[in-house]
Amino acid sequence: MSEEQTRILLAEDDENLGSLLREYLQAKSYDTHWLTDGEKAYNSFKKNKYEICILDIMMPVKDGFTLAREIRIIDPEVPIIFLTAKSMKDDVLEGFSIGADDYITKPFSMEELLFRIEAILRRTQGKGSHNKQTKFSIGNFEFDANKQILALGDENQKLTTKESELLKLLCNNANNILERNFALKTIWVDDNYFNARSMDVYITKLRKYLKGDPSVEIMNIHGKGYKLIL
């Protein structure tokens, strides 16, 4: 941890859980702002700079999905972890389609949440110096991984952190197979079912962004992974 504390937005309407989470994260040197409904959390996000958001899905006034969408309008990159009492696949996939970085199902251990927070921060704060190339030509597109911008002529598409990380892996393995498990463990840390489905959502988004050049294709390689064809 740096001397300046990482600031966390915690939106959780359960008084007991919210209080416990705030105390635990504060003890781990995270500056944690706890709000009890989505509207209060949104107002706090507008006024403050946060490095990560932890959002309960089921909240009064404004639910976690709505809050996440509004946060994404203000900041497309800030990492979001959803807390959910449900394990329904559709809920998890909806969260990932909004641009969530992870989810955790209640009940969970404090240590597991801390692990997930630290894993996300390692990725998003640029730790690790391998694959130093940050600018790529993808057919007629120019991709700047640092700025997270995919450009075609004068048109710029701003990418989320995960979209950018996944596209960078594809570029580093262009015309070769990017193994599915390698990508999952590199970006999502865990190669479980829900993370795998999340990656499929992001692949679909990247294909949509790259439609402007028909010569560029992201192929599914059955049982192995993906291949960016240039």
From TrEMBL:
Q: Which InterPro entries match?
A: CheY-like_superfamily (IPR011006), OmpR/PhoB-type_DNA-bd (IPR001867), Sig_transdc_resp-reg_C-effctor (IPR016032), Sig_transdc_resp-reg_receiver (IPR001789), WalR-like (IPR039420), WH-like_DNA-bd_sf (IPR036388)
* SUPFAM superfamilies documented for this protein: C-terminal effector domain of the bipartite response regulators, CheY-like
All copies of the Response regulatory domain together span: 7-121
Entry GO CC: cytosol; protein-DNA complex
Q: Indicate the segments forming the OmpR/PhoB-type domain, all copies.
A: 133-230
SMART domains named among the record's database cross-references: REC (SM00448), Trans_reg_C (SM00862)
What Gene Ontology molecular function terms does this protein carry?
phosphorelay response regulator activity; transcription cis-regulatory region binding
Task: Name it.
Answer: Uncharacterized protein
